Amino acid sequence: MTKFNELNLNPKVLKAIEEAGYETPTPIQEGAIPPALEGKDVLGIAQTGTGKTASFTLPMITLLARGRARARMPRSLVLCPTRELAAQVAENFDTYTKHLKLTKALLIGGVSFKEQEALIDRGVDVLIATPGRLLDHFERGKLLLTGVQIMVVDEADRMLDMGFIPDIERIFSLTPFTRQTLFFSATMASEIERITDTFLSAPARIEVARQATASETIEQGVVMFKGGRRDREASNKRKVLRALIDAEGDKCTNAIIFCNRKTDVDICAKSLKKYGYNAAAIHGDLDQSQRMKTLDGFRDGSLRLLVASDVAARGLDIPSVSHVFNFDVPGHAEDYVHRIGRTGRAGREGKAITICSGRDEKALDAIEKLIQKEIPRIDNPIKDEPKSDEPKQEKKAKPSDEKKSDSKKSDRKREKEPKGRNRRDGGGATVVGMGDHMPSFIALSFDERRAG
Questions:
Q1: Which of 59, 82, 88, 301 has the fewest other C-beta atoms within 10 Å?
Q2: Residue 379 falls within a domain, yes or no?
Q3: pLDDT higher for 143 or 48?
């Protein structure tokens, strides 16, 4: 088995790797690092949680160890789809550059432009950014990309989902054609293939798993949920979620709960807290400092349940997440793979449970086709409630019930009488429009009805 010290990495990088507790590279790292160190373009296809970040950070640091950055002209560029993933990549660089004097800047939303501009002005070796914020700085005239030697696109399929492909193409056009490109994606949609064909030159292709497969270490299950009354469906669904969490007991040390909509993230988190669960929400509308505070709490174990939108589905490098709960079935099948990939990382065991209502069954079918297997059905921990509040029981007859019974008998007796009598005088005139099927109570005279 290959060791990191066999991959021709910088000795100071190897020292940092050793201090971080790693000895053996993952398959994507073993496949991507050698061609990256040779200066080749790399196309890496691997499911989430396989160590993709280190597969580009380690060779980049080695290649950048020599040289010096110039003001406003970063030597390398890493593009990430979300703030969380960009911040995670920045943490990786901090870990592996601790014995080297390399500078970095993180360009993400929710942070002051002035602070970011100050870093760029001093010159950075590594620029880590989301596409929108990078282009904002460029259009302000604060940034030049003509000095980029190495460009990384991370989570390219997520970029596609979020509509960033036009931005990515523009950024590619602003960098030198002589750059080295490292391109990583969990899946290879046709649009992604077009991008790689256009902007990568004879890349080394490393594919370590079947496209869009879930890790075999993740135990999966789905609860088929019948919501009942529409006005109670959401609260009943939250009740099922609480029961599922309780059923896992101590095995659920921490969990990420995914909702499709930001409003549901907030509602779900507030509901869990109301019932005494240690939970907090994270989604794109929260302030960046609040998001990072919540993530830090989840990482250090002070927060047990993280309720998230898909903005947090990727880029959360928390090795020991025991469970993932899909409160909603994701609309895109690929997102299911990325969501449940938050657990079972680095060879650990994990568990992912999805709640599927009737309207989500088509989306569930698409997921099962993508991962090429059926997700086991598990019992709903909340038993179906009876239609009425109390089960029906035989009651003892009351005097009033006896009167009703006599009334019914008289009604049946009247039904045998000739129909079509005039409502006023009981004569033979028919009631227009009723024909031979006129109910007996209409045929009765007003006097007879008053008497009854």
A1: 301
A2: no
A3: 143
Cα gap 86→95, rounded to integer Å: 14
Q: Are 164 and 129 in contact (CB under 8 A)?
A: no
413 and 336, same domain (yes or no) = no
Which amino acid appears at position 84 of this protein?
A: E
- Regarding whether 244 and 120 lie in a shared domain, the answer is no
Does one domain contain both 297 and 243? yes
In this structure, are residues 65 and 12 in contact, taking their beta carbons and an 8 Å threshold? yes
Contact of 342 with 316, CB cutoff 8 Å: yes
The residue from 152, 178, 207 where one domain ends is: 207
The predicted pLDDT at position 384 comes to: 54
For residues 342-346, average pLDDT = 79
In the numeric block, the tokens 């507790």 are attached to 21
Q: Do 336 and 367 touch, CB atoms closer than 8 A? A: yes
Does residue 268 sit in the same domain as residue 150?
no
Instruction: Reduce the secondary structure of 182-243 to three states and give it as a string.
Output: EEEECCCCHHHHHHHHHHCCCCEEEECCCCCCCCCCEEEEEEEECCCCHHHHHHHHHHHHHH
Q: What's the burial of 240, exposed, middle or buried (CB within 10 Å: 0-12/13-18/19+)? A: middle
Q: Which of 130-144, 205-219, 339-353 has the highest mean pLDDT?
A: 130-144
* Mean pLDDT along residues 120-139: 95
| 73 and 30 within one domain | yes
**Who wins on pLDDT, 389 or 308?**
308
CA–CA distance, 77 with 99 (Å, rounded to integer): 21
Q: What is the CB neighbour count within 10 angstroms for residue 314? A: 25
Q: Which of 217-221, 244-248, 405-409 has the lowest mean pLDDT?
A: 405-409
8 A C-beta contact, residue 40 and residue 180: yes
Which residue, among 328, 334, 287, 288, has the nearest Cα to 307 in the 3D structure?
Answer: 328
Q: How many CB atoms lie within 10 A of CB 219?
A: 15
3 state DSSP class of 281: strand
pLDDT at 422 over 60: no
- Cα-based distances in Å from 18 to 12, 14, 61, 264, 336: 10, 6, 15, 43, 34
Question: Is 377 inside a domain boundary?
Answer: no
Kindly state whether residues 96 and 144 are assigned to the same domain.
Answer: yes
- Residue 403: which pLDDT band, with cuts at 50, 70 and 90? very low
Examine the fold and report which residue of 371, 390, 412 is the final residue of a domain before the chain moves on: 371
DSSP state of 149: -
The answer to whether position 328 is within a domain reads: yes
CATH number of the domain bearing residue 27: 3.40.50.300
Which residue reads 């709490």 in tokens? 297
Across 405-415, average pLDDT: 49
Average pLDDT, the chain: 83
Whole-prediction pTM value? 0.64
**Number of domains, the chain:** 3
In the structure, what pLDDT confidence band is assigned to residue 313 with cuts at 50, 70 and 90? Answer: low
